[in-house]
Automatic annotation (TrEMBL):
Residues 193-205 have a biased composition (Basic and acidic residues). Pfam families: DUF1349 (PF07081). It comes from the Bacteria. Residues 186-205 are annotated as: Disordered. This is DUF1349 domain-containing protein.
Length: 205
């Protein structure tokens, strides 16, 4: 199996540059702007497109992984991986504070946004990796905590001919001062199967 390549922080381009960033060893510390978010319309009736995302090309048949530390306190504190085509077509997946707990989830936006979550309280204070794998007309999103097993988060549509970018994102919809530590970003070949064990592939190593 080919191993992914580490992506240098300077290789990405900011969508909505955050107020502060600092390279710390191999990691990147990002301070989110207060009341920043990515969302379109559904249930809340507003459009927000001012969260922070450090993006680079996400071509077909590739995968991008983002690793970050979950250290959240306030409602809707969030970080993870974003896939972006344009302002009305994007996916964000990661961990977000909701109902007093860290929640693993994804928002898929095609004109309007949806949202799905599952509680992961045991992930607080630990390193989490989110992986997006693009093949055919779909992107498969998985996540894991440290060296734990991969969990399927979402299978979502993404047009084969779409020009997309991907990389780490964070938002702070309810407060000032959220700081997120991203430890690394990698890019490599896409998974060859939806489920581990199919066609001989196993992404759980």
């Amino acid at each position: 199996m080919d191993r992914p390549d580490t992506v240098a922080w300077q290789d990405g381009t900011w969508l909505n540059e955050p107020p502060r960033t600092r390279v710390d060893g191999d990691g990147l510390l990002v301070t989110a702007r207060g009341h920043s978010d990515f969302w379109r319309t559904t249930a809340y009736g507003f459009v927000r497109d001012d969260g922070h995302a450090l993006l680079r090309a996400f071509p077909p048949d590739s995968a991008t992984e983002v690793t970050f530390v979950v250290d959240f306190e306030a409602l809707y504190d969030q970080a993870g991986l974003m896939i972006r085509v344009d302002a009305e077509t994007w996916i964000k997946a990661g961990v977000e504070m909701s109902d007093g707990l860290p929640q693993l989830g994804a928002v898929v936006t095609r004109g309007v946004s949806d949202w799905s979550v599952a509680p992961v309280p045991e992930w607080q204070g630990r390193a989490v990796t989110v992986r997006a794998s693009r093949t055919g007309d779909a992107v498969t999103i998985r996540a894991r905590c440290e060296d734990g097993p991969w969990r399927l988060v979402r299978l979502a549509p993404l047009a084969p001919d779409a020009t997309a970018t991907a990389g780490p994102f964070c938002c702070s919809p309810e407060r000032d001062g959220l700081q997120v530590r991203f430890t690394h970003v990698t890019q490599g070949p896409a998974d060859t199967a939806l489920h581990e064990g199919e066609d001989g592939e196993d992404r759980g190593d």
